[in-house]
Amino acid sequence: MLSFFSEDVLDSPGSGEFQKAYRNYVKYLKENKELLPDQVYQLATASWCFNARDKRCFKDGWIIGIELSNEFDFDLKRKKKTIFTLKFLGAYHDRVVTMRYVGGLPAK
């Protein structure tokens, strides 16, 4: 995502560069939809995510918590799943948004 919204784009207010980058970003997401979990795709394409006037937007939000944990099955003596949790204080400081990823990444 960050490659679409480079410093050049963000430092050019009113030039139309952000809208162009946003269109390219959405196009990329649509072309790669099958590679993303549905909830990730829904969040990544939600227009409110990029609308600083919307209270749900993460712009100017603060990260207030990060947790990485592993569940372990003591009977089988193996890790069951990894849980990654991020907590954000909303940009208007009126809500806490929690994002949770449960699973793992494929080994390379």
Provide a descriptive summary of the structure in words:
A hairpin with a 6-residue loop joins β2 (78-89) and β3 (96-103). The protein has a three-stranded antiparallel beta sheet with strand order 1-2-3, with no helix packed on it. The longest helix is centred in the N-terminal third of the chain and has 15 residues, at 17-31. It has helices spanning 7-10, 17-31, 38-44; strands at residues 62-73, 78-89, 96-103. The protein has two domains: 1-45, no CATH class; 56-103, no CATH class. It is of the alpha+beta class. Helices cover 24% and strands 30% of the residues. The mean pLDDT is 82. 0% of the residues are buried. The protein is built from three helices and three strands; from the N terminus they run αααβββ.
